[in-house]
Specification:
single chain; alpha/beta; Rossmann fold; seven-stranded mixed sheet; three-stranded mixed sheet; 10 helices; 36% helix; 22% strand
Amino acid sequence: MAEWLGLLRSLLVYWRPGRQRGLRRLYRPLVAPGDLVFDIGAHVGDRSAAFAALGARVVALEPQPRVAALLRRLPPIRRWTGGGRITVRPEAVGRAAGTARLAISRRTPTVSTLSETWRAGLAAANPSFRRVRWDRTVDVPVTTLDRLIECYGLPRFCKIDVEGYETEVLAGLSRPLPALSVEFVAGRLDLAAACIRRLDALGRYEFNAVPGERRRFVFDAWVPGARLCSWLDAGAGGVSSGDLYARLAAPGAAA
């Protein structure tokens, strides 16, 4: 019962009226009709649906078995799966293919995670996690970004929201992607900085950030990784979570 109540809460939060419109507005500069998009950590599919509505082909990965089963049955997702616009895969993504143990929070499934260190220390570092309990574990299949690219091609955009496992996801990528986002969470901003360093090692990126659910970028112009790391070091504006965005810099753009 607790797990279904948690899923109901997610549906109410992520499918609330008006949210899809805001997501489409946010992603429109990054996703065009015909683009391929990877949604890593799709949860209840709100962003997958927004990508599909913008005309993209979406590969959505969600490792929680019950969430993935629900995702396939949601009317806004089924609208696109029938025509092949959204493909749902019940898998996690990491540095190597295989299996991994997923810790599930039945009351708050949006924070289920593969990272033991992330969940072990976050309650003390971030007040919003103090009542979170991870009360179930399950072994799940794991693939890599490189394998997904071999199967589907290079995505134009990749959204990564995997609750502290973002660096492991990027460790399974050996080439730069045109654009992507990774989640950050107060209390483990060091992981976000590590993601920036990893991306800078793959290609010449420029960055921005969206705090929380605000749908607006922090910086008027995209900035180098060092500038965004400084923003993280200063506390990321005091927000509890958000997303970092990265895109390959245009040829000839100032470093």
